[in-house]
Write a structure and sequence with these properties.
By secondary structure, the chain is mainly beta. The chain has a single domain, classed as Methylamine Dehydrogenase, Chain H (7 Propeller). The chain contains one helix and 32 strands. The relative contact order is 0.15.
Length: 389
């Protein structure tokens, strides 16, 4: 694993060490302020999984989604969409296989602007902060686009395709690449502030607390990285390839693996809390988890949505769809919204798993729902963006 640590010169060592310590403190303070501000955002879903901890939960003060949501509008991208939407202000942002990032009016779905990338946009989902929209494409380019008019602010080229979603952190942006690196870029101009090399693709999106980023990777390692300088804090071998992003809550992390299991770790002790691995149905978990009301909820390639006890990992309920569930669930108002490859979007009761709503989209839904301002926005494999409310 690459390290950005350098051996200081002997001359002025104490002064330089003190200066670096002050700089690190200043960076961490700025990051903490940025995280707190983002957590206090009013009724937005401004990035993948809704927030930097990737919990997949709408803000508590979010306007209520109707009990029986109806289609308010649809928009056709003209090609497949794997990206998940972001909702910020009065706009919806989403990327498509056409190589376009689009901004749509949340009210009526009319296109506000289009930004063209050179390569298709895959699973990387937009993140909005500081007047910019960030997204990665399959050519390995990170794009920063102005919210106001859809023009480019900057781009940064990595050495592999990007399926990870960006995480804005004040003056910087974190994003992974299939070149095996986690990048920390300047939000102002896209310059590399630091990068961390792993042993395989960085597919998932990092979850972030006030000082560290956490990711479980394709190299079968769960790791923590200091945000200020990219220094590794710890690594834990997990013995399984992981495509899902980590969900972080109260010093604990949760994620599924391709070894047909869901794992939970305590960040302080660095020990596994539990492992859920159904023996009767052994299928990978690609969906990223949502966490609310003592439950960890995620989809499985066994066609099921699973709800687990956050403390023990014991199953609380399952809901069976007609195809695998790679969509990551969103939780709002005591309900779970999730797509399935069976071409449907489901609304489930969080407490019981009972279906309370269903919409047939007629095309696989691997995109994850975004929930804000009383609306649910999701995209389909045939390029339809659908807004419910």
């Amino acid at each position: 694993m690459a390290s950005s640590k350098r051996t200081p010169a002997h001359t002025g060592y104490e002064h330089k060490t003190h200066s670096r310590w002050l700089t690190a403190c200043a960076v961490l303070t700025a990051l903490a302020v940025g995280v707190s501000a983002q957590q206090g955002a009013q009724d937005e879903w401004a990035q993948f999984r809704g927030n930097r901890r990737l919990t997949g939960v709408a803000p508590a003060n979010a306007a209520a989604v109707p009990a029986a949501p109806k289609v308010l509008w649809t928009w056709d991208a003209g090609d497949a969409i794997e990206s998940s939407a972001a909702i910020s202000g009065d706009l919806v942002f989403i990327g498509a296989s056409t190589g376009e990032l689009v901004a749509l009016n949340l009210s009526d779905g009319k296109k506000r602007w289009t930004y063209k990338t050179d390569k298709p946009i895959g699973e990387s989902s937009p993140a909005v902060a500081g007047g910019l929209v960030f997204i990665g494409d399959l050519g390995g380019v990170v794009h920063a686009v102005k919210v106001a008019d859809g023009t480019a602010a900057w781009t940064h080229k990595t050495e592999g395709e990007i399926k990870s979603s960006p995480v804005p952190l004040g003056d910087r942006v974190l994003i992974g690449s299939y070149d095996g690196s986690l990048y920390c870029l300047s939000a102002k101009d896209g310059k590399v502030l630091w990068s961390l090399k792993t042993e395989n693709y960085v597919h998932g999106t990092p979850a972030v607390d006030d000082t560290a980023a956490y990711l479980a990777g394709c190299d079968e390692v769960f790791r923590a990285v200091r945000i200020s300088d990219g220094q590794p804090l710890f690594t834990i071998p997990i013995g399984a390839y992981t495509g899902a992003s980590v969900a972080l809550q109260q010093g604990q992390v949760f994620f599924g693996t391709f070894d047909n299991a869901v794992m939970a770790f305590d960040l302080q002790s660095k020990k596994m809390l539990w492992k859920y691995a159904p023996k009767d149905r052994q299928f990978p978990f690609y969906s990223s988890a949502a966490i609310a009301e003592g439950k960890v909820v995620l989809g499985g390639r066994d066609k099921m949505v699973h709800a687990l006890d956050v403390k023990t990992g014991k199953p609380l309920w399952t809901f069976t769809t007609r195809a695998r569930v790679d969509s990551s669930p969103a939780i709002a108002g005591g309900r779970v919204f999730v797509g399935s490859n069976d071409g449907r979007v489901y609304g489930l009761d969080l407490a019981t798993g009972k279906k309370v709503w269903e919409y047939e989209a007629a095309s696989p839904v691997t995109s994850s729902p975004a929930v804000a301002k009383g609306k649910v926005v999701v995209a389909t494999a045939d390029g339809q963006v659908i807004c419910f409310g």
